[in-house]
Amino acid sequence: MDDYIAVIAALLYVLAIATIIPGLVHQTGIRTRTVFFSAALALIFHAWLLSDLIFDTTGQNLSMLNVASLISFITALVMSIAMLRTKLWFILPVVYSFSAINLTAAAFVPSVFMTHLQHDPRLLIHITFALFSYSTLTIGALYALQLAWLDYKLKAKKTIAINPNLPPLMMVERQLFNIILIGNVLLTGTLITGFFFVEDMFAQGKAHKGILSFVAWIIYSVLLWGHYQRGWRGRKVTWFAVAGATLLTLAYFGSRFVKEIILT
């Protein structure tokens, strides 16, 4: 049953992508309602799949692929809602593509990493902070890449710069730093709850998560300071945002990938 749910969700994400791409390529109008309803149905099936894969009578299966699918779901949900207020057509195909890939992998490549969060609500708080901080800062990295792309097209005087489906450069920059600020606050909460609620946070095999996450927090904090105090913009901002997101990805998925995928 989960296989069919995954296929339906993936096809609905692909439909949303197929509705967006022609508008970006040909600079024509994009059918927002079609994209939104396709994405909404995809998210419903995606959530259904996650509930089947994660929740078990004995606990929660937070395997790497399930968590990746959950993060993709959160990111797609936030971006789909934001679609109604701002032009996200450049980012949405990337977000929906990752959602389709991750949910398919979770459904067809089963893996197990059982937890029992019902017995440790403090750990649930820490994981919640971690999921939302990573999702938010991933969105920030996508915004940074979009900002760099728009800046390049404007400087190169490409016709794509006047594509009506793309947002103004200054709006993207403003939204980017709002997102990074929120994400860094959530990352701060992740580090604090990890320090107080996770007893073996710096034990052998886990220390790299805390260290890499803290380094990422420093990078984002420096980026915010540099922007608001020194007026940092352009390529430097992109490198900082992408570097922070990369470190967070390595912090969680690095060792888990080796343990759950390569060594199994």
TrEMBL record:
InterPro entries: Cyt_c_assembly (IPR002541), YpjD/HemX (IPR052372)
Superkingdom of origin: Bacteria
Regions crossing the membrane: 6-25, 34-51, 63-82, 89-113, 125-150, 176-198, 210-228, 237-255
Keywords for this protein: Membrane, Transmembrane, Transmembrane helix
Domain Cytochrome c assembly protein: from-to ranges: 38-262
Name this polypeptide is given: Inner membrane protein YpjD
Species name: Vibrio marisflavi CECT 7928
Pfam family, one: Cytochrom_C_asm
